[in-house]
Amino acid sequence: MRVLVRGTAAGLALVATLAMAAPAVAGAQGQGSAKGGPTTTTSAPVTTTTLATETPMELYRAALRAYNRELAAINKAFATAIAADKAALNTALKNARRPIQKILARQRFNAARAAAVLQRQSAISALGAKPQPPVAHHVGVTPPTTTTTLP
Predict the structure, then answer these.
(1) Of the residues 16, 37, 70, 145, which has the maximum number of CB atoms within 10 A of its CB?
(2) In this structure, which long-range contacts are made by residues 75-82, counting pairs with CB atoms below 8 Å and at least 24 apart in sequence?
(3) What CA–CA distance (Å, rounded) separates 34 from 136?
(4) pLDDT in tens, the chain (151 residues)
(5) Residue 48: CB partners within 8 Å, gap ≥ 6?
(6) Is the pTM value of this prediction over 0.85?
């Protein structure tokens, strides 16, 4: 967005400069110098800047990159949560003295895993649908026709 604003501002400044300088240059070309000789003026080459417009495919690619970044962040958070739950399970199993403690540790792990899966699914659904590529519009080109007239 900043590039667009800078490009627009630069373009407006260029147009304003040309608008103010053009009448002075035009008026000077028709007049001679004070000594009666011809006056020659040279003007700097004018470069025009066109703002790049994004094609539908470029917009799709940008949206897809943003979607994939968000999805990667969701998956990373999910993997981190599962790793922390597994570490807690392993610690609880190592410290368990009786079988009931091991059963309770596994139940806590399963509940934590289910919560992590639910959180991941809700985050993905909140992310929305994956961007779809633009539909190619084929312009119907009619082949050239030849007509023959007989005399």
Answers:
(1) 70
(2) 75/120, 77/120, 77/123, 78/116, 78/117, 78/119, 78/120, 81/112, 81/116, 81/119, 82/113, 82/116
(3) 65
(4) 444 444 444 444 444 444 444 454 455 555 555 555 566 666 666 666 656 678 889 999 999 999 999 999 999 999 999 999 999 999 999 999 999 999 999 999 999 999 999 999 999 999 999 999 988 765 555 556 677 777 6
(5) 14
(6) no
